[in-house]
What does this fold into?
Amino acid sequence: MPELPDVEVFKRYLQSTSLHKDIEDVKICTKNLVEGLSSSELIKTLKGDRFESAARHGKYLLAKTVRGKHLVLHFGMTGFLKYFKEEADQPSHTRLLIRFSNGYHLAYDCQRKLGEIGLADSMKTLVKEKSLGPDALDQEFDQTRFNKIFAKTSAAVKSALMNRKYIAGIGNIYSDEILFQARMYPGMTSKRLDGEDLDGVYSQMHQVLYTAIEAGADPRRFPSSFIIPHRRTDMICPRCNGEIRKEKIGGRSAYYCPRCQKDRSPD
DNA sequence: ACATTGACCTGAGAGC
DNA sequence: TGCTCTCAGGTCAATG
It folds into this structure.
């Protein structure tokens, strides 16, 4: 689930539900997801404070408190947030539970425990500490900077898009969608792409991510031109009706249309 | 130095 | 039904 569009949706969710409320209690249900400090330190830090704003970089979500601390949340492969009142509505793999003074709770659920909970001094610190590249939708991440990344790596274009040291926020699903929309074979060697190729991938990166955010990162609301909903269903290309192919590229399953996304690599 | 692989977790779904 | 196997939208340490 959680790639850039999903985390952006979580951020907005947190902003609309959990800001400016006293944090009465904090429970860490799974200790080994907490990184860089002890559970008790984290609890002590948050208790009695309140969130005043939220920010995102790549797949990381930060919630800033009035006292100037930043709760860091990473969602791994299965994480999500839920704001609720009744006990019965608590999600089944809650790893962190925050109770507010209005009686409502914010749960961080992460079934597969591949997520992370922590604290940071600022977004800048976090980005440095995790060696993250620019957020895919950062205004200052322009075409020139984008092109430089691809010019100097011999990795497949899909792997380069997904490498968080190069660009933060793009994972397996959205890299496939971006390359489908750009009509580019995911296994193309990055440094072999010409200017026109890179223009296409760069603009589709924005197009796809913004479109997904607008749809609430819910594949059921994606435009019919998107390939994502087809990978789990009919495996039919929404553009040419040809068959979608699945192939391991850079260790991950890539779904693409061999007719619309031709491999131009020399064999 | 850089790219690729395996390991980390847990659960759903396929195949027998 | 129940077992085993494979795979999943992420990341990092180990490996070549």
Summary: The mean pLDDT of chain A is 96. The beta strands of chain A are 23-28, 51-57, 60-65, 70-74, 79-84, 94-100, 105-110, 116-120, 245-249, 252-256.
